[in-house]
UniProtKB/TrEMBL annotation:
Amino acid composition bias (Polar residues), ranges on this chain: 149-159
Protein name: Uncharacterized protein
Record region (Disordered): 149-173
Biased composition (Basic and acidic residues): 164-173
Species for this entry: Streptomyces mirabilis
Amino acid sequence: MPDGRSDGAASTLLISACPGPPACAAVHTYLFVDGLDMVARSDSRMAGLDPRRLLRPGGPLCPTDMPCNVDVAAQEQPEPGPDRLTIGVRLRGETVIWSDLMYPGLDGKVVEEAHFRLEQYLGEVERAYAALKDQLVIPPSEPGRVSNCVTTPTHSGGQARTPADAHGRCNAD
């Protein structure tokens, strides 16, 4: 599967959010992979989901050993529709893998997977959430994972923990 980076280096994630009205119809998340707007390049009719849902601690973008399918965007025009942009998120060692991607990279080749260094990935999710916390009312926990996602600790070497908990950033609900 073609990776986001042809040089084999880890991809970089940058997250930002649109504050909603009057700039846009609703608050939504931008997900930039290696400087490219992954949502817009995947489907220009889509807009990222609400950052309060995607970025919350223990939320759907928090990686676990168990692969998860995560809705990251929905059709925007004229109203949010049933069409969704869903990606796979999983943790393998110190690497977060986004799979089931389908957008053109800078070189014109289709990007199907992106690999992020765990520290950079979790740091960016945490940074983006902290930046939003003061601007937005954060609702109680909302379901964000769409299938087979385990939010209970996994067992590794006799210690019950999630891989993200070991790094002290994401906490399962």
